[in-house]
């Protein structure tokens, strides 16, 4: 593992309970790198991401993410891990009973922020980054899917993570909105964060080309665009 590595798995096995999903996984992402994760339904993309954010245990092989050893990860260390990475899901997962500002404040409080002024400042900063500076008062149901995903990305940025894991972040969006979200994620990457993004959308990969890993036949292989 090089100094610039932000995520690596070596000879890892990814399990869902007793079911072996992926084996001999050897992957590395450096700081500031963008990588796509593709593969057919059920191929193991979400299982791999879940292992990386501590939702599934890594029992075989070795793995490290944002400086944390995944094989040694204890239940009580999972919040620390989640603070150091940003996670974005297909279905946004905003709390539907509160405004954008309150959604973001909830995460800040849960991750140890106390000072009210500092929290307000940080919320405004991340909302500006995703083009939602004036939308803090909105409730989730008052926003389009694309706007909700922007807020979800703002939420992922709150604690200034070096790595963002995104599980089909454009899966619920129309093609144009998907492109807008990709432009945003590309900008975030250009600002030095690494991104690992699972997707089914090959047209996005062609428009925004980055390294691509494919889950296939129980393995993760690096692939080139012409073989997608
Ligand atoms: N909670 C679970 N318990 C047991 N097996 C599961 C669970 N979730 C997924 N699996 C199994 O693990 C394998 C990989 O599923 P996974 O969700 O990682 O695939 P995926 O590539 O993300 O698929 P999709 O593109 O449909 O999201 C599949 O065989 C699936 O049936």
Blueprint of the fold:
Elements: E1 5-16, E2 19-30, E3 34-38, H1 45-52, E4 60-65, E5 68-69, H2 78-84, E6 85-89, H3 100-110, H4 116-129, H5 145-157, E7 163-167, H6 175-190, E8 194-198, H7 202-207, E9 211-216, E10 219-223
Parallel strand pairs: 3-8, 3-9, 6-7, 7-8
Antiparallel strand pairs: 1-2, 1-4, 4-5, 9-10
Helix pairs in contact: 4-5, 5-6
The structure holds adenosine-5'-triphosphate.
Residues 16-17, 19, 21, 39, 41-47, 215 line the site of adenosine-5'-triphosphate.
Pfam families: ABC_tran (PF00005)
GO cellular component, one term: plasma membrane
GO molecular function: ATP binding; ATP hydrolysis activity; transmembrane transporter activity
Index terms:
single chain, 228 residues, alpha/beta, Rossmann fold, six-stranded mixed sheet, four-stranded antiparallel sheet, globular, binds adenosine-5'-triphosphate, Cell division ATP-binding protein FtsE, ATP binding, transmembrane transporter activity
CATH fold node name: Rossmann fold
Bound molecules: adenosine-5'-triphosphate
What is the assigned CATH homologous superfamily?
Answer: P-loop containing nucleotide triphosphate hydrolases
Helix share, percent: 25-40%
Q: For the report, how would you describe the main beta sheet?
A: 6 strands, mixed
Q: So, CATH architecture? A: 3-Layer(aba) Sandwich
Strand order of the largest sheet: 6-7-8-3-9-10
Please give the number of β-strands.
Answer: 10
**Residue runs with pLDDT of under 50 for 5 or more positions:** none
Mean pLDDT: 94
CATH class identity: Alpha Beta
Distance between the termini: 28 Å
Number of helices: 7
Domain ABC transporter: 7-228
Keywords: ATP-binding, Nucleotide-binding
Function: Part of the ABC transporter FtsEX involved in cellular division. Important for assembly or stability of the septal ring.
Protein name: Cell division ATP-binding protein FtsE
């Amino acid at each position: 593992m090089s100094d610039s590595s932000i995520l690596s798995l070596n000879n890892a096995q990814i399990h869902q309970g007793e079911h072996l999903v992926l084996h001999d996984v050897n992957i590395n992402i450096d700081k500031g790198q963008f990588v796509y994760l593709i593969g057919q339904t059920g191929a193991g993309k979400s299982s791999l991401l879940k292992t990386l954010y501590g939702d599934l245990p890594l029992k075989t092989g070795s793995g490290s993410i944002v400086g944390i050893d995944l094989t040694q990860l204890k239940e009580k260390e999972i919040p620390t891990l989640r603070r150091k990475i940003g996670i974005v899901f297909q279905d946004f997962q905003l709390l539907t009973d509160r405004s954008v500002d309150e959604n973001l404040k909830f995460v800040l409080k849960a991750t140890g922020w106390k000072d009210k002024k500092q929290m307000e400042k940080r919320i405004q900063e991340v909302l500006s980054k995703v083009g939602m500076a004036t939308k803090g008062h909105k409730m989730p149901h008052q926003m389009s899917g694309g706007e909700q995903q922007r807020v979800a990305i703002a939420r992922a940025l709150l604690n200034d993570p070096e790595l963002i894991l995104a599980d089909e972040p454009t899966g619920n969006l129309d093609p144009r909105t998907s492109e807008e979200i990709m432009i945003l994620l590309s900008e975030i990457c250009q600002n030095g964060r690494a991104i690992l993004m699972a997707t089914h959308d090959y047209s996005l990969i062609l428009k925004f080309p980055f390294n691509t890993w494919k889950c296939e036949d129980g393995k993760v292989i690096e692939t080139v665009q012409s073989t997608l």
